[in-house]
Amino acid sequence: MKLRHLILLSYGSALLFVMIIVFFSVKYMIFQTDIAYIVTVIMVTACTFGFILSYLLFLPTFRSIRKLSSHSHKLAEGRFEKITDIRSPKELAELSEDFNYMTGQLEESFNQIKKSEDEKRTMISQLSHDIKTPVTSIRSQIEAILDQMVSEEERPLYLESIQNQAMRLSELTDKLFELTITQENKKQKPTIKKVWIDKLLVAALNSFQVQLKAENRGITIDLDEKMSFIYSDEEGVNRILHNLIANALKYSPPGTPIEIKGTAKDDAIQMSIRDSGMGIPEEEQKHIFERLYRVEKSRNQKFGGNGLGLYISQEIAKTLGGNITVQSRLGEGSTFTVHLPRALS
Predict the structure, then answer these.
(1) pLDDT at position 244, please?
(2) Which of 112, 235, 327, 340 could form an S-S bond across to 322 if both were Cys, CB 3.0 to 4.6 Å?
(3) Half-sphere exposure of 51 (CA within 13 A, CB side)
(4) What is the pLDDT of residues 191-222, one digit of tens each?
């Protein structure tokens, strides 16, 4: 029942109650008939004017309730509009503020969900392309070999190309697996232990020894004496270093050096990995840690980038209480710096 109907019912009930009392008073000779008529007229008049006055006083409340009801329906339809003109009564004004806060929270959550869904669609599309391209290449080259369209002199080149495409598929599979692990680990508390930075760095570089030798790479390491160890998640720190070193090798030409520098403060450490590659445009730098974001897509196709490594590394760094920053200039290379606390609480 609407509020206006409740007001009308309350005044009508009061009037009916008074009339019943007057009727029994006349019947049992408590009131005289003429006095009863006068009382009845007075009561009817008083109730009528009382109802009109109450209705006028309640008009702002009625309007506020209608606005709240209208906005709640709009909210249910996905239109996140805020209420700006409810000032009375005070209780409804406070309720409208709570409603606006709820609307803002719902809109933010809705936008985050929409962004996540858009990212998933983009990820599926890009990964499908990343998988389809090497698979198509492998298939066509194998068919050419089986159909004896490739000479003996060309066969080693075809086999090397097949091997490279297979390695791209393997790398993509590893990154997807790593992404899954990272998302799962975000829900769990990291395992904290004493992590020796020099040993971890040596272990990370050992996995690239074949590539470093084949590309005639020089590695320069400069670690601050104060950063011998930290208390953190060893596997997480190792994955960050591995991904950043792999990124430096991928996007810099063979024969150029990789520089690794570590500095320590009272409560944090910094590990910088610098390459002499192509560099990253300034307008792109704020996006490179986004999932599947690719700097200049044509160059990523050339080098086989999939936009997952830096995203994964940044997510791990945040889980460990730190972050990764980048400094880069076109034609001069890039420096990625991971900032981590000395002790993860």
Answers:
(1) 92
(2) 340
(3) 18
(4) 889 999 988 898 888 888 878 888 899 899 99
